[in-house]
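A brief tutorial aside. Many learners find it easier to grasp structure tokens once they have seen a single protein encoded end to end. The record that follows does exactly this for NAD kinase. Read the sequence first, then the structure, and try to relate runs of similar tokens to stretches of the chain.
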Amino acid sequence: MNRHPVRNVALVARDASPLVQTLSHAMEQWFGGQGVTCAAFVFDHAASDFQARLGNADIVIVLGGDGTFVGVARKLAVTPRPILGVNLGRVGFLAEVAPDSWKGAFSRMIDSGVRLESGMALQYSLLRNGKTVWEGLAVNDLVVSRGGPARLVSLALTVDGIRLARLRADGLIVATPTGSTGYTSSARGPLLHPGINAYAVTPISPFMSNFSPMVVAGETRISIAVDAGGPGIYLTVDGQESLELQQGDTLKTTGHKDGICFARIDDESYFAKLRSAGFVRDFAE
């Protein structure tokens, strides 16, 4: 299998805290000693010059938790630049490298390169009165839900132009395989293998259980219209960006097969990772 060589690295840190910056500085110095060019900076969600700051990096290494990883990945969406995570968070399911073993992992990376793996993103647009008011790409998920009082929202779901269902629930999650281990899993949705071209549609506490979680092909085009529910309904992208919705708004989304480029140093099984992260456990008698 072909490996992607690494000779130029961009280190993107979660924040400017002493712990994170000490680790970032140590890595920067270590890479320099190995003859690898390295630039380090703190991630800023709002920065418009993110791509420019990466320079000619062969790979982007993220120092942070899954949230930081997803935020950086969204900035890299639909670009060929690979991303790799060093876990400084709680779960760290998306991270490839543990903070106490980074030297060994990066030594293997320099010696043998990295394996590249494509991941799906969700391309979305939000229509209001027939006009697009928000559009972009999601790495993990799109969530339509109420942010205020505990009242049901009423959503109309259309799949490839065919009306599928009118749903009353706390909300609805559309998730990529990458995002299926997040909010979707908490809502009893399916875990999707990262190698499949598909995404999941999962209701959040549906009234009368009239809608079960679904897995649809990546090319499927889904529309979610806000039928009713009053104020306080939001579209949230990757748990990080949100916009309040109005009655009549329609969210349109479909999969983008090669949305994200993940870098893998080792060949750990996806299923072994599920087990080690606690998503699958033995039955306890």
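Self-check: The radius of gyration is 20 Å. If you spotted this yourself, you are ready for the next section.
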